[in-house]
Write a structure and sequence with these properties.
4 strands, 4 helices, two-stranded antiparallel sheet, alpha+beta
Length: about 140
């Protein structure tokens, strides 16, 4: 027998080097838990959820644009309790839009008040009014 035969041949009485694989019953695989979104986690916890998901601006008029929002029913219920539902026909979008307009209005008013509180920012031009007759007044 040559060297090759000695190294790579099996003897009749030897057990195989690798035991044959035993078949196991397939384990019941645990279904992966669904990955919840932030909205899903808030809803599952019974908490209100609101998010701005998209902002669109008019490239020709930077002052014009739109916001796209997402919310859960818990948030809408909270708004209804706070008085944002004015009519029975109001949709969730109507209620959320009314709330968002209030938020924007409050931000603008707060900014205006801060600017007006600073004497350096105030418009100190005198306002002149002149009666131009027929119940009309000119203001400049």
């Amino acid at each position: 027998m040559g060297l090759f035969d000695k190294l790579f041949s099996k003897k009749q009485d030897e057990t195989p080097a690798v035991a044959p694989k035993k078949t196991k019953r397939a384990k019941k695989e645990k279904a992966p838990e669904p990955v919840l979104t932030e909205k899903g986690r808030a809803t599952a916890a019974g908490e209100p959820y609101i998010a701005i998901t998209k902002v669109e601006l008019d490239p020709n008029n930077i002052n014009a644009g739109a916001f796209e929002m997402d919310w859960n029913s818990i948030f809408i219920t909270q708004l209804v309790k706070a008085g944002y539902m004015k009519k029975k026909e109001d949709t969730d979008s109507d209620i959320a839009d009314r709330w968002f307009q209030d938020v924007c209005r409050n931000v603008a008013l707060e900014l205006y008040e801060q600017v007006q509180a600073d004497p350096a920012n105030r418009d100190v031009r005198p306002i002149q009014s002149r009666d131009i007759g027929n119940g009309r007044t000119e203001v400049s």
